[in-house]
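pasting for ref. prot 1 ->
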Amino acid sequence: MEKYLFIDRDGTIIEEPVIDKQVDSFEKLKFEPRVISSLKTLQNAGYKLVMVTNQDGLGTDSLPYENFKGPHQLMLDVLASEGVTFEEVLICPHFPHENCACRKPKTGLLGKYLVPGVVDKEHSFVIGDRETDMELAQNMGIGGERYNPETNSWTAIAERLTKIPRTAHVVRNTNETKIDLFVDLDHSGGSEISTGIGFFDHMLDQIATHGGITMKLKATGDLHVDEHHTVEDVGIALGSALRQALGDKRGIGRFGFAVAMDEVEAKLDGLPDDSLMNHPVDACMDISGRPYCVFSCDADFVRQQVGELSTEMVPHFFHSLAYAMGLTLHMKVTTGNTHHQVEALFKAFGRALRMALKKEGNELPSSKGVL
């Protein structure tokens, strides 16, 4: 799926003449303030642009095509010279009384964009200066931005749409567990975590703290049986939430790694000296879209349980998370104090995650053009 902006022309990209409402001569062509720079910003942020415009009576005596095409093409040429290009320019040429299927706010011109899986509806918008543009957005099931040079300028629209929060809310209910999870990848602190498994809550908080994210989690499960379903389903929910919050993944670091050899010679940057104790621990990840998980614990965990958490569930949690997130994940810890081993793994995962989630620029970090 792609992020799209469906943009009106007259009154939105170019000024609409007050008297006759028609841009039918070069003298009438005038761009709205800061529209070109804003469209360039939006396009660089990964939006695909589609122009959708009603041109009453185009091709008739009231608006001859010969009068229309010159200013229209000049508008497109000026935009293209600044790097702004449109996937399509869709024009309804009919009068309102003709009751056609293609005149906004109807969606007749937009059939290919209504096919499931084409448009990322959560992150796509209609931009226009009229109420009919907002009705079109509603009919397409996407958001709407009503342009006004005074109250909602192009600068304001571009700033808002390029700073879409990287958040996700996942609700996962089964016969075994009920999970409500919210994550915010761009803000830290204020996490609230409750799974009914105290040590597991503490470990999830390590991911949130060292990952630089906010996690609000409420999970209830069949703990009277054991903790397996709760831990597994939280891993699935967290992986799903991280994947959703990442959106199109543009600008992310993609790769993350954390290595601490021992307390004297190597430590994770920014962590207290004893935070990973004296256990060599590796956490390397690639937000690749290709799930794979390798987990290694030298000589296995000495203890079978830490608090209410079975140590056999630690690798299972990371496997569940990795596959739900589309994450390639390699984790390794040596033998030692079991509490410290497990805590080191969760902290190292959080630190690696922080690196991989960090966003700089808008490029997609893949030579394939897809993640």
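and prot 2 ->
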Amino acid sequence: MHTLGPAASPHTLRRKTYNVIFGQEPGWGRRFDAILIVMIVLSVSAVMLDSVESLRVSYGAELHAIEWAFTVLFTLEYLVRIWCVRRVRTYTLSFFGIIDLLSILPTYLSALLPGGQFLAVIRILRVMRVFRVFKLVRFLGEASVLSTALRNSRYKIAVFLITVVCVVIVVGSLMYLIEGADAGFTSIPRGVYWAVVTLTTVGYGDITPLTPVGQSLAAFVMILGYGIIAVPTGIVTAELAQLPGGGSYPASSCPGCEYIESDPEARFCRFCAARLSSNA
């Protein structure tokens, strides 16, 4: 493995541990990831149940103990991951490395910030390893294409969003002048809030226009909202149509930093230079 270096013997404890934790082949590596995913789901479930007041009153101590137990286990696992890789910086700064760290910090921060343990639900992102465990990484090629399309259309979407912001500010200001405080439009920001809710077709109904002019403007904004919703979809779709491959090519996963490479011609990871393993 490139992350251990050529001097590492395949029979050393460090190498065997690496093969179990980062390995993709059937055996203990697959079992380890499957067990890890089950533990992640159980720990997130405990955090979610702890947010229910009735359960927290009855079983708060037990749920708190369960959360700490899982956090200690995940901390040990994180330290072992650091120990068995050669390029520690590559792993710790990778996507999964950052998620692994963020998944254990909230529980420790809860000692200083009450309620901080609820942020531990971020560890559910670690379940994304299921793509690697069950050999589904090939489907991430499509995700990479979508990501590329979004990145290529970011300037068009930015112009679109700026236009929308200008529209809601103008409409919110008009509603403030037309309806006034009696209808709930107590300020321009309040009117802008109403414009956003109406333009996105959410329609909470907490503020409603009362005058015929205000209702006519509201009807115009509602109709405009349906047209606006389709704009970013069309922008991204146009970019997708211009991309070669359409996501049909297989993705490869880096055994070192777990980066998903969608370039079919890539043979080595662009971040840690490890040889990529094809999952086609």
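The longest strand covers residues 252-253.
The mean pLDDT is 78.
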